[in-house]
Design brief:
The protein has 327 residues and is mostly helical. Helices cover 76% and strands 0% of the residues.
Length: 327
């Protein structure tokens, strides 16, 4: 009797990609129907290239910091991967993420490559911890900015952003500590119960294997990375002559980072739907807010193209990533 499983394979293989494209398209349709497209085009045409170049440079520089952060975690596992090789992997992964609206690319390549020096579940765990430390440090920065810096955000909106960051910080710390969250997951119903044997277990194992010294080191590098992240958003605002300061973006950027977890093409469509609300509270017109998110998206995607020559050179010299891309 033939198994029905093969008929489900196309959906399993392409379902995530279809979802991401669908969410992005729906988001963009909503935005197009609610903003002044003429003003949007005018704002983008007046972009100052020197500030775009500054933002572009910050994005490129962030790849090195991200490679350093991941290296700290992998060194805790005794990995022999060099910083140059990790930087190469980040650039190649970013290039594939820029071309493909799928999960293939950065995280997948990095997890497979790290598995050469560590058990696969631990290697995958380091990728999750790498991402998690970035979010945690961003939440801390936002909470400090809300507490100590004056902001022109409405009180209610600032309170909502603070609540989201605080909740994210608590959940992230629980994930890093691992054992409590692992126990709680066993009480969840249905498919959620398997979290205890999946992502949470991988993070818990990776933290234990890497050691807290490595995790804390990764958090320190994450603060430096997030300073650049906030920097290129601010550079985008400068390029469009928008009155959004670095301090404003310390508070707003964590929301953009969380939205990257929503299935979409690099946050496109999702951020544009929310941008008029967040930036509107700071006095921007909807078209100006969307112009900023589109400009930053373009800077991030263009910077990913730097990975193209890196991938070509790595392939020509027979680097380790060649079998990875055949997985």
């Amino acid at each position: 009797m033939l198994s029905p499983t093969p008929k489900r394979q196309p959906f399993k293989k392409y379902g995530g990609t279809v979802l991401k494209v669908g969410v992005t398209v729906i988001g963009l349709i909503i935005v197009i129907n609610n903003i002044d497209l003429t003003q949007l085009g005018q704002n983008l045409r007046q972009t100052r290239p020197e500030w775009v170049a500054v933002g572009f440079g910050m994005v490129i520089g962030s790849y090195l910091l991200r490679a350093v952060r991941w290296r700290i975690l992998l060194r805790g596992l005794g990995s022999r991967l060099s910083l140059l090789r990790l930087l190469e992997l980040y650039l190649i992964g970013a290039f594939f993420n820029a071309l493909l609206p799928s999960g293939f690319g950065g995280d997948v390549v990095r997890a497979i490559e790290a598995s050469r020096d560590a058990p696969p579940e631990v290697a995958a765990g380091t990728v999750f911890v790498d991402r998690l430390t970035g979010l945690l440090s961003l939440f801390v920065m936002a909470l400090v900015a809300l507490a100590w810096q004056p902001t022109t955000l409405p009180y209610t909106l600032a309170l909502q952003i603070g609540a989201v960051c605080l909740l994210g910080l608590v959940i992230g710390l629980l994930l890093l500590e691992g054992s409590l969250m692992l126990r709680l997951s066993y009480w969840l119903p249905g498919p959620l119960h398997r979290l205890g044997h999946g992502l949470i277990q991988k993070i818990l194992t990776a933290v234990k294997k890497c050691g807290w010294q490595s995790v804390l080191g990764a958090l320190v590098v994450s603060f430096l990375f997030n300073l650049l992240l906030v920097g290129w958003w601010t550079a985008g605002a400068r390029a469009l002559d928008l009155p959004i300061t670095y301090g404003h973006h310390i508070i707003i950027v964590p929301i953009w980072s969380i939205l990257l977890l929503v299935p979409s093409i690099g946050g496109l469509g999702v951020r544009e739907v929310l941008a008029p609300t967040l930036y509107g509270a700071l006095g921007l017109a909807p078209a100006e807010a969307v112009a900023l998110t589109l400009l930053v998206f373009a800077m991030e995607r263009l910077s990913s193209l730097v990975g193209a020559p890196v991938y070509i050179l790595a392939s020509l010299k027979g680097a380790k990533n060649e079998p990875l891309l055949k997985q």
